[in-house]
Design a protein that fits this description.
The structure holds 2 protein chains of 2 kinds. By secondary structure, chain A is of the alpha/beta class. Chain A contains 9 helices and 10 strands. The termini of chain A are far apart. The chains are: A alpha/beta, B mainly alpha. Bound molecules: adenosine-5'-triphosphate and magnesium ion. The site of magnesium ion (MG) has 4 residues of chain A, from helix 1.
């Protein structure tokens, strides 16, 4: 089997004195959609931030397309081909929708074109000149995903894209993720919404207290339900 | 003699022009401070010294190399901007993770060192820098004579401010700058080399101060204190306009220059304090400044 696209081993991370990740290990193969499930505070967001080089201190191993990134700066990590959509969405209030869309630089060929992104999220076209500060939560989420599709990055890290959104928008985000998979993107998706995760993912990792405690293929999800309920407290 | 509001017209217009000139310098200097503060979160107290360096570099170019005003307008900002880049890399970049106070102390100290060095080398009496021949003389506006050079300074300052505003508000580079001002870590996580952007921004802000210094050289004598005289008022302008607000510093700079000029006509006793009175009022009523976001 070829080496996975992303492989974390023994990943640890700290915020100041507090030790948040205690040796996270997981793999994402090219073309897969993989979720990270877990309760509030389990360390899902921190795992994505550690991959992006956004935590103050980290150690262990982050291999991406055969390259070790544990010591790299976050701009180098992005240029290696990983794109990040943060939990708080990170829309820049003083930039309009188009400026937000064009902010992340193209790092390789093969990204989606703006018309393709507009086809995926028609709202972004209608609101092209609106300031980021004026967007609804759903529009912010579409923009946060849309703007990382241009860059040519093949691995997308999405942090709870369904959080706090109306059911129709959640469905639209779900369709989008399946469409992205069909286009060959690889996705590592943080989710708390179990039902949503089930509709988009190939595999699930469950996190608890800063560690990965379980891996479940989507097909085996029903069988593992009882155990997962315990982990996730739902 | 024509009188306006009980004041001789030439006096009124003369002070108005003087106010506009000062306002032009306030605007250019506070603009540089705003750009630097926005991205670096550091109040650049070296700004006055860097303005002075601009004037001195123009003087040195002429005196030692025979290079005149027009080239100085280009060369001095580049030279002083490069010195700013060195300062940012060597010193300021070490302070970003610390409290604001350290940046303030460092840049304040650097300013003192630079001014002291120039005072040691060139004395404090001031060196003359002549108006370039193309800009001597005066325009007859009918109601007054406007020295050409003063008109030129106001026009250049307006154009420089407008160009800076356009770059920041209307170009991709400006969008990146604004985004980095909001959330530098995320901008870097998109693959943009933010530390380099910060360094270049500091260099550009400093270059703007130096350009103002070159423009000032023929008006005020070139001396080590020339920046210090301006900069206190400029900080008041920045506070009134709103820390980091680009448009705020431009508008406030020009308006306060004019307000100062008019005060000199109608109530001269207040002219040196009026800006600070306005600053106190603004701080009490709108602490974020007139154009600032709270
Ligand atoms: N900036 C920070 N400084 C200090 N501690 C932090 C910081 N961010 C997160 N933590 C702590 O790290 C732990 C993991 O947080 P993280 O945000 O990774 O959890 P999460 O799994 O994403 O949770 P949620 O589902 O609520 O988003 C939590 O205990 C949290 O309190
Ligand atoms: Mg989270």
């Amino acid at each position: 089997m070829p080496e996975p696209m992303l492989k974390l081993e023994g990943l640890e991370a700290w915020y100041g004195e507090s030790h948040v990740l205690h040796g996270v290990g997981l793999e994402v193969r090219e073309g897969e959609v993989v979720t990270l499930l877990g309760r509030n505070g389990a360390g899902k967001t921190t795992t994505l931030r550690a991959i992006m080089g956004l935590v103050p201190r980290r150690q262990g191993s982050i291999r991406f397309e055969g390259r070790e990134l544990i010591g790299a700066r976050s701009d180098a990590i992005a240029r290696a081909g990983i794109a990040y959509c943060p939990e708080e969405r990170g829309i820049f209030a003083s930039l309009n929708v188009t400026e937000n869309l064009f902010l992340p630089p193209v790092i390789r060929a093969g990204g989606m074109t703006v018309p393709e992104i507009h086809a995926l999220f028609p709202n972004l076209k209608e609101r092209a000149r609106s300031p980021g500060a004026k967007l609804s939560g759903g529009e912010q989420q579409m923009l946060a995903i849309g703007r990382i599709l241009r860059t040519g990055a093949r691995l997308l890290l999405l942090d709870e894209p369904s959080e706090g959104l109306a059911p129709v928008i959640v469905q639209q985000i779900g369709r989008t993720i399946r469409e992205l998979k069909a286009r060959g993107f690889t996705v590592l998706l943080v989710e708390q919404n179990f039902r949503f995760a089930q509709t988009v993912a190939d595999r699930h990792y469950v996190m608890e207290h800063g560690r990965v405690v379980e891996m479940v293929a989507n097909a085996d999800l029903a069988a593992a339900m009882d155990r997962l309920h315990e982990y996730l407290g739902v | 003699m024509d009188m306006i509001f009980g004041v001789p017209a030439p006096l009124l217009f003369g002070q108005l022009v003087l106010g506009l000139i000062n306002g032009a310098f306030y605007a250019m200097l506070s603009l540089g401070l705003a750009v630097i503060f926005g991205l670096l979160n550091i109040i650049n107290f070296t700004h006055g010294a860097q303005f002075m360096m601009g004037a001195f570099v123009a003087w040195m170019l002429l005196t030692y190399l025979g290079i005149g005003y027009w080239w100085a307008l280009l060369i001095a900002p580049v030279v002083v901007g490069l010195s700013g880049i060195v300062i940012e890399r060597l010193f300021i970049s070490r302070l970003y993770k610390l409290d604001h106070l350290y940046g303030l102390l460092l840049t304040f100290g650097l300013g003192l060192i630079i001014e002291g060095t120039f005072r040691n080398l060139y004395g404090s009496s001031g060196l003359p820098y002549r108006i370039p021949p193309e800009l001597t003389g005066a325009w007859d506006l009918g109601f007054m004579f406007l020295p050409v050079y003063r008109g030129w300074v106001v026009i250049v300052a307006l154009l420089v401010c407008l160009a800076t505003w356009l770059v920041i508000e209307k170009t991709p580079l400006g969008a990146t700058l604004r985004a980095a001002t909001e959330n530098a870590a995320l901008v870097q996580a998109f693959g943009i080399n933010v530390p380099r952007l910060v360094t270049l921004t500091y260099g550009a802000g400093v270059g703007l101060a130096a350009l103002a210094g070159v423009l000032a050289a023929p008006i005020y004598s070139v001396n080590p204190q020339m920046g210090a005289n301006f900069i206190i008022t400029v900080f008041a302008v920045v506070v009134i306009g709103g820390m980091g607000s680009i448009l705020g510093s431009i508008v406030t700079g020009f308006v306060l220059g004019v307000v100062e000029g008019l005060t000199r006509v109608f109530y001269p006793e207040l002219s040196s304090t009026v800006v600070f009175i306005i600053m106190a009022i603004v701080l009490l009523t709108r602490p974020a400044g007139l154009f600032g976001r709270a």
